[in-house]
Amino acid sequence: MSKYIGLDMDSKKTVACVIEDGRPDWYKTLGPDVKSLRRFLRSQKAPGRRVHAAFEISGQAGYLYDHLVDCVDELYIVNPSKATWIYRTAKKNDRIDARKIAVLLRMGELPTVYMPAKEIRQWRQMILHRQKTVQKVGMVKNRIRALLKSEGYFKPALGGGWWKKGNRLWMEELCHASDGANPLWRLQLGDLLAELSILERQRDRATEHLDTYLAQQPGGRLLMSIPGVGPRTAEAVLAYTDDIRRFDNYKQYCAYFGVTPRLDESGSTRRLGHISKQGPSVVRWVLCESSWKVVRHCPALKTFYERVMGGQKSRKKIAVVAVARKLLCIMRAMLLTGELFNAKIVQDALKAA
Q1: What pLDDT, on a 0 to 100 scale, did the predictor assign at position 295?
Q2: pTM of the full predicted structure?
Q3: For residue 278, what pLDDT band results from cuts at 50, 70 and 90?
Q4: Given a cut of 70, is residue 181 above it in pLDDT?
Q5: What kind of fold does domain 2-113 have according to CATH?
Q6: Distances, alpha carbon 116 to alpha carbons 38, 42, 101, 203, 244, in Å
Q7: Would you list the DSSP string of 3-64?
Q8: pLDDT above 60: residue 86
């Protein structure tokens, strides 16, 4: 005998719907705190009965999962975006939502989310933190260049790159110059340079932490043996893969990262569209960035890239995405076998494909 519990949570309360054989469905309103949820779930346990519970994913899903998983026999995290057609209804309230989760859980049709260990979730968060910091650094640099050009500084004083040490010192001097420049302009430039320094320090701290953590992961050395794949790509793939054995084949693996085409099939008509772009966008981003380097350093994948491009420059991006997908297939095989990158095996496989 089993008991199925759907939990609809918000910041003020949690509504639980309980479904079990031989009894009518019943509801209970709980507090939003973990103690109330633990007490309720533990009260549902009984000899000879298995308790299955589920709730929708949210920003605190990992925290809730860690504190509730020992209170039931099975705990699931729901991905509502993959079941919108099931959830669509003219009526909607907390009880209805909780009951939908419980009913789908009982039917075995609930679209669930894999919940990695806390350490892996924190690793992912640090990767995202660094990515966002890098993006902020780029935004501030663009604002500084635009600000300098607004006062006629179209080229850095010492030539070369805008951000080499000498040109950075020149920008600092402009903030304190007394040549009649607008004082508000100098103030804005100084603030942007200070913001840039803070962001760069944050980025460097995050990079140092990630490098140290990646050095402890055996898969890091494997993936970085691929020509053109660096630590940022290796760590993102490893963090979001977690356990490679949870993917039965390479199609599932590539679909998880959103680099497989959408399929529209009806009767005898079968259309393949753009890639789905589902899953972690940070992995697709670093994979595509690495693919440009891999094409330059790996002859076999360069040949594959040129074959997909077919001599048409307009197909460059399509070809790069195809290389990114091949990279994922290669990475999956390497993680399963524990072998370093072998250019000849890749070349033979691509020829046979």
Answers
A1: 93
A2: 0.87
A3: confident
A4: no
A5: Nucleotidyltransferase; domain 5 (3.30.420)
A6: 21, 23, 21, 25, 12
A7: EEEEEEE-SS-EEEEEEETTS--EEEEE-SSHHHHHHHHHHT-BTTBEEEEEEE--TTHHHH
A8: no
